[in-house]
Amino acid sequence: MRSDNRTEKTVKRKKRRKKHYLLRFILFVLICVGLYFVAHMEYFTVDGIAVIGNEEISDDEILKLSELETGENLFDVHPWFVERRIKKNLYVEDVDVDRKLPDRIEIHVTERSGKAQFIMGKKFVVTGNDGTVLEISKEERQVTLVDNVKVSEAELEKTIEVKEQGVYDKAMKLIKAAEENDLYFKKIHIEKNDVSAYVYDSLVCSGKYENVMDVIKSDALRTVLYDLYQKGTESGVINISGNNYCSFTP
Question: Is 233 within 8 Å of 226 (Cβ atoms)?
Fold first, then answer.
């Protein structure tokens, strides 16, 4: 008799547990449905998309790659997928997509810097400062041209291969130093240890590699260039020697 009572109590407990589990499941489903409908209210419709941090890549290009549009629901935007799409542009080093409640998306872009370009046949190979090939173009880009380095092999997303490795290394160090000191050279030509760095087509900085590096880092060259800019001078030779000395020949 006692055994029957125990069995009956056990069955009742199991039934109560099943009811509790069912109620919890129903409550969970209702909460999820409620959250879905709240999240998809018109209040969370994307009304603005901002692109931040880009200088060389246009907003239109970033937005096109993102495939984002105003009018869609904020919670239907998945940042990870958007970031992957934007990174298809090799000039993008990093990107963060943030959803800003209630109706805004911010795309923070970090671009690759210190770019140079080299001639390969009838094409121009554009690289990042680490030598990674960012673009192979039929047209010259607005980045520093290293004109006497021959490219033996170039493939997107891979490191460029050149014949004149020593000249290449010096050119890239010059470009990086110039960028860090707010300078830009249109073209660089290095012959052994002699450097010709063109600010304009007809305004060239000429000197030994070490001396040119020194005047760039010391800010002496930028001072000279600013003075020439103020005078409207766009042609001539800036002769660079030791001890950060620069002399200008019209």
Answer: no
Contacts of residues 175-182 at CB distance under 8 Å and 24 or more positions apart, as own/partner, are 175/114, 175/115, 175/116, 175/129, 175/144, 176/114, 176/129, 177/213, 177/216, 177/217, 178/144, 178/216, 179/113, 179/114, 181/216, 181/217, 181/219, 181/221, 181/222, 182/222
Contact (Cβ atoms closer than 8 angstroms) between residue 186 and residue 139: no
- Whose structure tokens read 């109706």? 103
The Cα 210–Cα 174 span in angstroms is 10
The predicted pLDDT at position 34 comes to: 54
- Burial track 93-107 (b if 16+ CB lie within 10 A, e otherwise): eebebebeeebebeb
Query: Which two three-digit tokens encode residue 91?
Result: 């000039």
Tokens describing residue 14: 């199991």
Q: Give every residue of the chain whose pLDDT is below 50, as ranges.
A: 1-2
Q: What are phi and psi of 185, to 5 degrees?
A: -110, 130
